[in-house]
Amino acid sequence: MKKFTSVSDVENLQEIIKKALQIKENPLSESEKGKGKTIGLVFLNSSLRTRLSSQIAAQNLGLNVLTLNAAQEAWNLEFADGAVMNGDTVEHIKDAIEVLNQYCDIIAVRCFAGMKSKEDDVNESILSQFEQHAKVPVISLESATRHPLQSLADCITIKENWQENRKPKVVLTWAPHIKPIAHAVGNSFAEWMQEMDVDLVITNPEGYDLDKNFTKNVKVIHDQDEALKDADFIYVKNWSSFDDYAAMPEVKENWMLTNEKLKNTNQAKVMHCLPVRRNVELSDEVMDGENSIIYQQAKNRIFSAQAVFSEILDELNS
Amino acid sequence: MKKFTSVSDVENLQEIIKKALQIKENPLSESEKGKGKTIGLVFLNSSLRTRLSSQIAAQNLGLNVLTLNAAQEAWNLEFADGAVMNGDTVEHIKDAIEVLNQYCDIIAVRCFAGMKSKEDDVNESILSQFEQHAKVPVISLESATRHPLQSLADCITIKENWQENRKPKVVLTWAPHIKPIAHAVGNSFAEWMQEMDVDLVITNPEGYDLDKNFTKNVKVIHDQDEALKDADFIYVKNWSSFDDYAAMPEVKENWMLTNEKLKNTNQAKVMHCLPVRRNVELSDEVMDGENSIIYQQAKNRIFSAQAVFSEILDELNS
Amino acid sequence: MKKFTSVSDVENLQEIIKKALQIKENPLSESEKGKGKTIGLVFLNSSLRTRLSSQIAAQNLGLNVLTLNAAQEAWNLEFADGAVMNGDTVEHIKDAIEVLNQYCDIIAVRCFAGMKSKEDDVNESILSQFEQHAKVPVISLESATRHPLQSLADCITIKENWQENRKPKVVLTWAPHIKPIAHAVGNSFAEWMQEMDVDLVITNPEGYDLDKNFTKNVKVIHDQDEALKDADFIYVKNWSSFDDYAAMPEVKENWMLTNEKLKNTNQAKVMHCLPVRRNVELSDEVMDGENSIIYQQAKNRIFSAQAVFSEILDELNS
What is the pLDDT of residues A53-88, one digit of tens each? Predict the structure, then answer.
């Protein structure tokens, strides 16, 4: 694997899921693989799970880890090409990347959508600079439009929770929120599920359809009850409008996931990438109930990251 | 040891002091004991000594260390049970703890008193959630009402500095400050000293008596001069009113510890947990004088933490 | 080497450059040298290159690394001797240093000029407290008046890029900026270049002459074009006025380095310590052009740090 920023960087999805599950069985089986190599974890945004799971995964592989909270610990970054830097920005992202090239064997970066310019976000204005200027493999720790390490963990979690001899019905359901939230997790989940042997349905209110480039031929249903019927897995996630970018069109029905809504499902397992706003996105009873596999999902972030780092190291060592 | 949040978690105080002193002699004697295990150090508040000494102690034991400055690096936490999270808080502490359960073999947390609600603080509104939801051993790096790793370091330091064949007189003296400060260090010191073979006296102005649950039968004297007489050890620390919670009733006498006040003592050794406000809590001449064993006390924070981590690992490895 | 805060701490400059280049060939050649020892990296200011290169260098030597963002993670520091600490400051720098003495075998500190009091900055009001109170070797990660790890990296980089049998002409040129910037990099480069076998010229506008204590007998030319003529190396850096401390006297000519200005040079290599304000200090075309050795310079920060840490360890182990 040469880089990891979307599902298209994965050669064989079933193989990497299998590898991740082997790592879960024995996390220290490749504890020397990263010896003498350095991974830089660059955070332009907050992180709990991604931060800790990436650090654990790297340590399990014997990698040196450099963690940088770029905004707080280093310099205010300029992202515009050709900028005359006579304002608040102190260092151009290009130069920061070129320096990371000198210091790291792998660069991993978290760069959320700004939610101001649709064009900037759709074009991955920050991640694209890493892809362009990095001379070492780049790993996304969530970018403007995708969160692939989360999606791989989601695949692993579904794999672990599905033994039946038929395709599970997987429903990605929009959930309420109080602020305009990015589309990355929703997009990415849609994209990865289309590579899995599942029946994917997306449900969201009118005005909240995701970017068609990610959902392609996936069925989108605007009636949550209808969509949840017979679901085997429900993935709960908020996002703001894509068409009217970052807007929050009024929603009249209550889209919060509750135990009541689980009744029509096939005892669906409930998933969420976390952090979750309890009693807004889903109820306490769902979060703390036996249908939730949310913490298992969080744990699998370690093995998702470790499988990816391991495949990147294969490339570097080859 | 299954957890470490107060003196009652210690089975045998003299044994753990002895162990800490052995570690001080040879800090790397158990350098493989934590191999393949991970300790999460979660800071909800500032820290210098606790941060660094815990990191050193963990490294000396071969533990992987994850340090998280929760507020700045991760998400704004919700602490209220059943909250409808439609405000500023992004992640419930319960969920953060459940995720830490997935990532860590030991969780250590610093969660100061909020100093707003007496009830919340007395009930350890944050630490109690860790004790309730953590599925791995929990270590307090100072909570609302106690600072046990500090108190153990204090015990070690007194042990090192007392060879005489009689009980030392130990005086915990209130000191001036400009802000309402928590009771944790005072409470904890009182609690631990009652388990040590010492004569403990507490002195503070009227209105500043500590919570009786921590001081029990300890003599409290409101005249500092009288209390300090013949002291062998003086522990200097400010706290705000407990009865009139977090208030700062006027104090007319000057309670700052000075060399003049040391004259009536038995060449008392002076202790303080740091950070200290010089020339407010105690004078420069005391801080920099030969009676101070304050930096030795700071050093012993390493061995206090390491002895505790080591006993927790014994439990995990058994 | 007993400490490293200026070029005068280096016994033999050519030897340490040679050592750094050997380390560059084989960074893990002394991977056990620091085993069981701890270096504390204390940041009172922002850092990208210094932070990461110091961490890498320390890891390459097997040192334990403690990184402390003092202001954000620990306590607000008091720097004034004898202060009555009844204001915003919570811990005296003296006490923080004494605690670091207990925890670290080496203390490295970044403490920029405050740019408010010339006297404080010239007297190194912060670094001097480390030099006075530290009981272990002190390394400067940039102080008020010097940036020696940068200067050593600069020497290494010039060495790598000069094979001719004559002294290179090295020009330190002032560059425009929008804020009053410290003199440390300029001072330090001047000081170190005087120990190298080069012809050093400094060029800056009237009113921007550096402190004579650093530039001594170096030729200072106020006409940039004249200074750059036949240059083999150009070091670009802004600084504010030293005489009228931290002022920014008006400059009429355009001092930004451009390709046009490189024409009169001997195909000069361009250097900068980074971060750089593109199209203010130098143009995009220079930064991204083939004359720039700026990223190589950034990489050499690792080997500069590692050579210094290694020599300090020699002293500790002797």
Answer: 999 999 999 999 999 999 899 999 999 999 999 999
Which residues of C are less than 8 Å from A95 in CB distance? 274-276, 278, 287, 294
Q: Taking CA B67 as the corner, what is the angle to CA B62 and CA B73, rounded to the nearest 5 degrees?
A: 160
Given this model, what pLDDT does residue A74 score? 94
What's the rounded mean pLDDT across residues A239-263? 98
CB contact under 8 A, A83 and C302: no
What ipTM score was computed for the predicted complex, to two decimals? 0.96
Classify residue A113 as exposed, middle or buried by CB count within 10 Å of its CB (0-12, 13-18, 19+): buried
Domain A7-147+301-317 top-level CATH class: alpha beta
If you measure CA to CA, which chain C residue comes closest to B285? C82
CATH fourth-level superfamily of B162-292? Aspartate/ornithine carbamoyltransferase (3.40.50.1370)
What does the pLDDT look like over A123-152, one tens digit per residue?
999 999 999 999 999 999 999 999 999 999
Kind plus residue range of the DSSP H or E element containing B315: helix B294-317
Chain B closest-CA separation from residue A50 CA (Å):
10
Q: Tell me the pLDDT band of A212, cut-offs 50, 70 and 90.
A: very high
Tell me the three state secondary structure of residue A10: coil
How many residues does the structure list for chain B?
Answer: 318
Handedness of CA A246, A252, A254, A255 (dihedral sign): negative
Q: Are A53 and B104 a contacting pair, CB within 8 Å?
A: no
Q: If you average pLDDT over every residue of chain A, what do you get?
A: 97
Sign of the Cα pseudo-torsion (A86, A89, A94, A95, in order): positive
Residue ranges of chain C that CATH labels 3.40.50.1370: 7-147+301-317, 162-292
CA distances for A286 relative to A245, A280, B204, C317, angstroms: 30, 12, 51, 59
Q: How far is C74 from chain B (nearest CA, A)?
A: 5
Element (H, E) at B168: none
For testing contact with chain A, the best of B98, B100, B101, B105 (most A CBs within 10 A):
B98
Surface-to-core class of residue A240, CB atoms within 10 Å of its CB (0-12 exposed, 13-18 middle, 19+ buried): buried
State pLDDT tens for residues C208-260.
999 999 999 899 999 999 999 999 999 999 999 999 999 999 999 999 999 99
**Does the annotation place C46 within a ligand binding site?**
no
Of A68, A72, A75, the CB nearest to C52: A68
E-strand stretches of A175-224? 199-203, 219-221
CA–CA separation, C75 and B279 (whole Å) = 17
Inter-chain CB proximity A95 and C276 less than 8 Å:
yes
Residue of chain C nearest A82, judged by CA positions: C284
Closest CB to C53 among A68, A96, A103: A103
Chain segment B208-226, per-residue pLDDT in tens: 999 999 999 899 999 999 9
Q: What values do phi and psi take at C110, rounded to 5?
A: -110, 120
**B43-86 pLDDT, tens digit each:** 999 999 999 999 999 999 999 999 999 989 999 999 999 999 99
Number of residue pairs across A and C with CB atoms under 8 Å?
79
Q: Distance between alpha carbon A262 and the CA centroid of its chain, in Å?
A: 25
Contacts of C98 in chain B (CB under 8 A): 295, 298
- The answer to whether the Cβ–Cβ distance between C295 and A98 falls below 8 Å is yes
Classify A288 as helix, strand or coil: coil
Strands (E), chain C: 38-43, 64-69, 77-78, 91-92, 106-110, 138-140, 169-174, 199-203, 219-221, 233-237, 269-271
Q: What is the pLDDT of residue B71?
A: 86
Identify the band that residue B278 occupies on the pLDDT scale cut at 50, 70 and 90: very high
Distance from CA of A314 to the nearest CA of B (A): 23
- Give the best residue of C48, C68, C287, C299 to mutate against chain A (max A CB count within 10 A): C48
Cα of first residue to Cα of last residue in chain A, in angstroms, is: 11
C102: chain B residues, CB-CB within 8 Å? 295-296, 298-299, 302
